[in-house]
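The following record pairs a protein chain with its ligand, S-adenosyl-L-homocysteine.
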Amino acid sequence: MAFIIIKPKRDSAFQRKHPWVFSGAVAKKKGSPAAGETVDIVNSRGGWMGRGAYSPKSQIAVRIWTFNEEEHIDPAFFRRRLERAILSRHELKKRLHLSACRLVNAESDGLPGLIIDQYERFLVCQFLTVGVHTWKDVIVQQLQELVAPEGIFERSDSPVLDKEGLPRTVGCLAGHEPPETITIREGDYRFLVDVRNGHKTGFYLDQRDNRHLVSPYATDSDVLNCFCYTGGFGVPAMAAGARTLTNIDVSAPALDLARQNMALNNLDSEQVDYLQADVFKQLRSFRDAARAFDVIILDPPKFADSKQQLDHACRGYKDINLLAVKLLRAGGYLFTFSCSGLMEPALFQKIVADAALDAGRDAQIIGRMGQAADHPTSLAFPEGHYLKGLLCRVW
Ligand code: SAH
């Protein structure tokens, strides 16, 4: 087996079982491993450190599969990892009455780059690293045995694939093609999901707990749901008896599904508005028109994909939070999120604090939010915690 020697003093991350080896930490490569091939990692003193998948194009040269020298990377390895991840979700699905759930959450489930989401009888997968791409057939076979789904659909169409030198691939991997929309159940609510064309694998499963948190605040309130996508936050808000709901998104297909989701939950109502608009502009029009709301949800897309974009992202978050704070009535609630992994929680909090300060409003944090339990964060991989939310009361 080819192996990679790590530079002296660059092995501390391994002691903490962090699964990434950056190309800058590589001193030497022995042998000529192909992309995705299994390599051993040794330190400068020749000590065995780990075993992972080699990725020559990426800045992350190796993603570790195992820190156990006895463990071989073969179909049985994938079976063990998939089984543990999938079994741990069974209980959750039962407890929360879910028919859609993330079954495998990449690094945090010991399978770097692999996302598997279940939507009813279908699995939707993303193979985002050359390591899991290499083992795709084995993984698909194991998923058929472990879950016996009606079909397995691939949505490996994220821009992160470019960094791995992998092509974007969308299509059926096994069984039947999924229908145009799949109806999923999430506790008391049902949602239509377009797994072929929707964002990511079709739905923001990571926001599940936070959707439900909105309910008690929405009763008798005017709710503004910014970046609403298919109306995930709007459904519980209307079900809890919101006075009005304003959904904003740039995407017409997303708004169309948002409308259908409202009807599916018997919440079709003249009190719900759907605005196809840019949130940045729409919030300014609301400000100019002196509109006011009791609850505002800000769940923007990822504003930063790289460190270079972080400054720009900060300005974007500041802008929408400032506008939103100004639109809240005294005592109103702001649910504000960032799903950019590069945005540290402390920095995000500072941006929201600056927004309140500039708006001349007093605000308190009354809740902190994160991603749902089927999106775990391995303690060895803090980067896995990407979704941050603050629930603020604004005076
Ligand atoms: N809150 C949603 C998920 C939001 S994802 C949920 O819980 O399901 C981000 C959404 O923002 C996407 O639907 C995307 O179409 C939309 N979007 C991106 N940029 C936008 C902009 N400038 N103005 C309005 N919507 C935007």
